[in-house]
Automatic annotation (TrEMBL):
<dbReference type="Pfam" id="PF00651">
    <property type="entry name" value="BTB"/>
</dbReference>
<keyword id="KW-0677">Repeat</keyword>
<dbReference type="GO" id="GO:0005794">
    <property type="term" value="C:Golgi apparatus"/>
</dbReference>
<feature type="domain" description="BTB">
    <location>
        <begin position="179"/>
        <end position="247"/>
    </location>
</feature>
<dbReference type="InterPro" id="IPR011333">
    <property type="entry name" value="SKP1/BTB/POZ_sf"/>
</dbReference>
<protein>
    <submittedName>
        <fullName>Leucine-zipper-like transcriptional regulator</fullName>
    </submittedName>
</protein>
<keyword id="KW-0880">Kelch repeat</keyword>
<dbReference type="InterPro" id="IPR051568">
    <property type="entry name" value="LZTR1/Attractin"/>
</dbReference>
<dbReference type="InterPro" id="IPR000210">
    <property type="entry name" value="BTB/POZ_dom"/>
</dbReference>
Length: 354
């Protein structure tokens, strides 16, 4: 057995259970039921279908002092126990009234118990019409897929080491000198110069190096950026090591793209892991798009595994159907490149006694 790593890790697995089903629909008319329920103790249906696999039996437990309190039980007899359901309905004036269902069905199972007064409400001219729908699940197959684990060191700040790193960040963030970013000539954001150097970003390091003559003093940098909000999120991440609390997938995707632009590797790793935790059929194409443009090997592996496992749902989305043929070809080739092993395990649904 593989040893579980001590560091906090995120394990992602998928499971899908497939099955085929057979449905047997049986309608039983009981004429003169208002008289029959008082005189009979057992009523048996004809066997069905052509192979005569199933028979229903009604057993009546009379209460002579009050016939309407007669207890009526429905039983099913079969040589082949099955996993599925047996729905019992009454039919009155063409309308079905569902009254019972059951799960695993064995020979002699009691499917439903009621009273004569409850069934008499559904008679028409003294005739009670019952409908039995047997749904049998067969060829049940479970498919599983396990994707490589991902360490959570930059997603959840929970371990002592992470708390220590955050403490170092916090101390560095209040130590002068500072770089003051003036964004789009309106918003200003102040951050420690030493902290900018510590993240080893070529972009932010170059800013610090160009102002060496003012090494001991605060410096102001005027920047025109496409979005001052996203740039401020990057600076906040550099200070805290965390993404915004309520980051949605579009925000994380934008931050991931900017992590390459500004060479902030910690932000890149954190965004990738956050996206891995939030892949869905609705957003997987958006996440896939960035894995095609940027070197995101871990994220891409998870995206490919997700697509392969959810291929039917994925190909039925409106977004997928609108993709150009060149994009479809690229997706198919990418899936083929990743060796993704989906294991199939048949499930025995019968009890040991059967």
């Amino acid at each position: 057995m593989e040893n579980v790593p001590i560091t906090p890790s995120y394990y992602k697995s998928y499971c899908r259970t497939n099955y085929t089903k057979n449905i047997f629909d049986y309608t039983w008319h009981l004429e003169h039921f208002a008289i029959l329920y008082k005189t009979a103790t057992k009523i048996q249906s004809a066997a069905f279908p052509e192979t005569a696999r199933y028979t229903f039996e009604i057993r009546l437990f009379h209460t002579p002092l009050n016939w309407d309190d007669t207890v009526i039980k429905f039983y099913i007899f079969t040589e082949d126990p099955f996993q599925g359901s047996c729905d019992i309905s009454t039919i009155l004036l063409g309308k079905k009234k569902f009254i019972s269902t059951a799960g695993y069905v064995e020979n002699g199972s009691c499917m439903y118990e009621t009273t004569a007064s409850a069934l008499l409400k559904y008679t028409n001219g003294g005739t009670l019409t019952l409908n039995f729908t047997i749904t049998i699940l067969c060829d049940i197959l479970t498919k599983t897929l396990h994707v490589k684990s991902v360490p959570l060191d930059t997603v959840n700040n929970s371990t002592g080491m992470e708390k220590h790193e955050n403490l170092i960040r916090a101390r560095a963030s209040i130590c002068p000198p500072f770089v003051i970013f003036k964004l789009n000539e309106c918003r200003a954001y102040k951050i420690s110069k030493n902290l900018l150097r510590s993240i080893k970003s070529s972009y932010f390091s170059s800013i610090c190096e160009t102002c060496q003559e003012e090494e001991e003093n605060d410096i102001t940098i005027n920047l025109n950026v496409p979005s001052s909000d996203y740039f401020q999120m990057i600076l906040t991440f550099i200070e805290t090591g965390s993404l915004p609390i309520y980051s949605d997938v579009p925000t994380i995707l934008e931050l991931l793209s900017l992590s390459f632009t500004y060479d902030v590797k910690d932000l890149q790793v954190t965004c990738e892991k956050a996206l891995i935790l939030n892949i869905t059929v609705a957003n997987v194409l958006d996440i896939l798009d960035i894995t095609m443009k940027e070197p995101t090997s871990i994220l891409k592996e998870h995206v490919m595994a997700f697509i392969k496992f959810h291929l039917n749902e994925f190909t039925n989305t409106a977004t997928f159907k609108q993709l150009p043929s060149s994009s479809l070809k690229e997706i198919v080739e990418s899936i083929a490149e990743h060796k993704i092993d989906i294991k199939s395990v048949p499930i025995n649904t019968r009890s040991e006694s059967s």
